[in-house]
Specification:
Helix 4 (about 80-95) crosses helix 16 (about 460-470), helix 8 packs across helix 12 (about 360-370) and helix 10 runs parallel beside helix 12 (about 360-370). About 35% of the residues lie in helices and about 15% in strands. It is α/β, with parallel strands linked by helices and about 600 residues long. The chain is globular. The chain has 21 helices and 22 strands. A six-stranded parallel beta sheet has the order 3-2-4-5-7-6, sandwiched between helices. A six-stranded parallel beta sheet has the order 11-10-9-12-13-14, with helices on both faces. Bound molecules: thiamine diphosphate.
């Protein structure tokens, strides 16, 4: 029988399906009215609109891979499950649809755990389908079973970070479980759901049409009129109100509503790391990011506010300067109104005058309606203060944006990227200078184009997530701005991009170190033991550009600062995966806020 039709070659797929059923009948296949579960599952995913699954094979999932290969669903095979998980996460962020991940049991599932946990802590919807040992061997310790405390226990590994973990114990439960997984991953606060499938269940017979029900259409919660009126009254009547936007504003696609509310009541907007891009960077009411790596004007306006209306944020530590009232939020005396889709977030870190469980876009739309024709207090010279505050801070690195220094200043890398990127292109960061510097200094003007790991802050996210971003938005540029630590952690992404034809650009900010941590240790202990890339006591740098070329991709090592702009433009125009290695000075990102860890370190034997 012919194999491997071209992806999306529907006629070939149809022929293979017919042929496969024929073979199956001839070999004593399913009885009349029955079909093998794996094929029905793949077709069900098609009907749900799943266009791509990221994953890595194993003996427990090849029955499903066979079905996928004959379906319209694209399968992106990675060289490490963590890559697949981050790529599925990036796909979900850029498409607005759940990402789907397929892993083998045991080591496949555990390899993916970091990526799935990263998605969980950033409220990203994922459906994880994992193979497991044959169900009839539960308890006999079959090959690769996780069973030290309980038989067939691998799915429990995902419990702390999944919204729900399912192990499918009977074939007839598979359709319902998959439907529940898609429903739960997207409803309420989005997140990952695990569907753990013993391998015999993929091969079991199910009645034709067993996968019938689809996830329900769910109306998301909004604010009632009285509550909306109350919040708008509070904003209009406050002397120094601030709207504080988190990632929930972006995932709900609520930027237009946020801008309308801010403009209507003349309220400045500060944001979290995940909220960056909630308003155009040149919006006159935009204060910028708060917290340790935030901006002085955002921290100051939040700290001196009399009312904070926070939307779609968990008021996390880094964004809130470890909740120390001297730096970012002083609540009380400021009053806090907090709107979030997850009730668990309300009232946890600050006394909260009013908590509202609602979808950010619906809530903001209700506030905009309630604020029509409302007058507000005198805001003085608010817009001028914001412009001055932002300009004063930016002046600190004005010179660096054009610095000819080699190894480059990180700010020069940002400025070249800004000039080369189409406005709607995606910047996917990792952790390190890249995340903190972009959050603080890079002007994002199109909502949703900044993609970053916030909650788990996983080194290794950026190089992989960019693959999923580009697959979700093939017509738009996608650049991963990452450190050499992150890129070195999983260079196999280049081979995957080549195999799957995903033309992304990785800009590797190469400081021969886990630079951020090296700087932290240097500041507190006077050296960077364990954080530098060294060989025989001298800096050791990998030729990442050559690694890319060895994979058949393009690889460029920047030799002078003015080479970077042309290299970026060339890479973006080429349609070929490209690694641009940029030697960079290891300097810390400015920290206008506070992080309590700095008070913990103690030096001395
Ligand atoms: C998986 C993982 N391990 C360790 C860390 C701790 N950590 C935070 S930043 C960082 C350094 C990142 O180095 P690099 O990617 O080179 O970026 P740079 O800091 O040099 O800008 C590390 C190790 C982490 N966040 N994630």
């Amino acid at each position: 029988m012919a194999r491997n039709p071209e992806p999306n070659d529907h006629s070939a797929v149809a022929i293979l399906k017919v042929a496969d059923e024929a073979v199956s009948q001839a070999a004593g296949g399913p009885a009349a009215g029955q079909r093998i579960a794996a094929y029905q599952l793949a077709e069900y995913l098609e009907t749900l609109g799943v266009e791509v699954i990221f994953g890595l094979c194993g003996h427990t999932v090849i029955a499903f891979l066979d079905a996928l290969g004959k379906s319209r669903v694209r399968f992106i095979s990675t060289r490490h499950e963590q890559v697949a998980a981050h790529a599925a996460d990036g796909y979900a962020r850029a498409s607005g649809k759940p990402g789907v991940l397929l892993t083998h049991l045991g080591p496949g599932l555990t390899n993916a755990a970091t990526g799935v946990a990263n998605a969980a802590l950033d409220s990203i919807p994922l459906v994880v389908i994992a193979g497991d040992v044959p169900s009839y061997y539960f308890g006999r310790h079959p090959h690769q079973e996780v069973n030290l405390h309980k038989d067939a226990d691998q799915f429990e590994i995902y419990r702390p970070f999944c919204k729900r973990i399912y192990r499918v114990d009977r074939p007839q439960d598979l359709p319902r479980t998959v439907e529940r997984a898609f429903h739960l991953s997207q409803s309420g606060r989005p997140g990952p759901v695990l569907v753990d499938v013993p391998m015999d269940i993929f091969s079991a017979d199910l009645p034709v049409g067993a996968f019938q029900s689809t996830p329900p259409l769910v109306a998301r919660p909004t604010i009632d009129e009285t509550t909306a009126e109350r919040i708008v009254e509070a904003l209009a009547g406050a002397e120094r109100p601030v709207l504080y936007a988190g990632g929930g504003v972006l995932s709900a696609r609520a930027s237009a509503e946020l801008a309308a509310l801010a403009g209507q009541l003349e309220v400045p907007v500060a944001h979290t790391l995940m909220g960056k891009g909630c308003l155009r960077e040149d919006h006159p009411l935009l204060l910028g990011m708060t917290g340790f790596w935030g901006t002085p004007i955002a921290n100051e306006k939040c700290r001196t506010a009399d009312l904070i209306v926070a939307i779609g944020t968990r008021l996390a530590e880094a964004n809130s300067s470890s909740w120390d009232p001297r730096f970012t939020f002083a609540i009380p005396p400021a009053r806090l109104i907090h709107i979030d889709i997850d009730a668990a977030e309300l009232g946890r870190n600050y006394p909260t005058e009013l908590g509202v469980v609602a979808d950010a876009r619906l809530a903001l739309a209700a506030l905009v309606s309630a604020s029509k024709n409302k007058t507000h207090g005198d805001r003085g010279r608010l817009r001028q203060e914001i412009a001055r505050g932002r300009a004063e801070f930016a002046a600190n690195w004005d010179d660096q944006w054009s610095s000819a220094q080699y190894p480059l200043r990180p700010e020069r890398i940002l400025s070249e990227l800004k000039k080369a990127m189409p406005e709607d292109g995606f910047i996917v960061t990792d952790v390190g200078w890249n995340k903190n510097g972009v959050g603080q200094q890079y002007p994002i003007t199109v909502p949703g184009t900044f993609i970053t790991p916030s909650g788990l802050a996983t080194m290794g996210f950026g190089p992989s997530a960019v693959l999923g971003v580009k697959i979700a938005q093939p017509g738009r540029a996608a650049v991963a701005l990452i450190g050499d630590g992150a890129f070195g952690a999983n260079m196999s992404v280049v081979a995957t991009a080549m195999e799957a034809n995903i033309p992304v650009v990785w800009v590797v900010m190469d400081n021969s170190a886990f630079g951020t941590i090296a700087g932290l240790e240097q500041a507190h202990y006077g050296w960077s033991f364990g954080c530098l890339f060294e060989r025989d006591g001298k800096p050791y740098s990998v030729d990442y550009a050559a690694v890319a070329r060895a994979c058949g991709a393009q690889g460029v090592k920047i030799q002078a600062a003015d080479e970077l702009g042309p290299a970026l433009r060339c890479a973006l125009a080429s349609g070929v995966p490209t690694v641009i290695q940029v030697p960079m000075e290891n300097v810390p990102t400015p920290t206008p806020g506070y992080w309590n860890i700095n008070d913990i370190y103690r030096n001395g034997c």
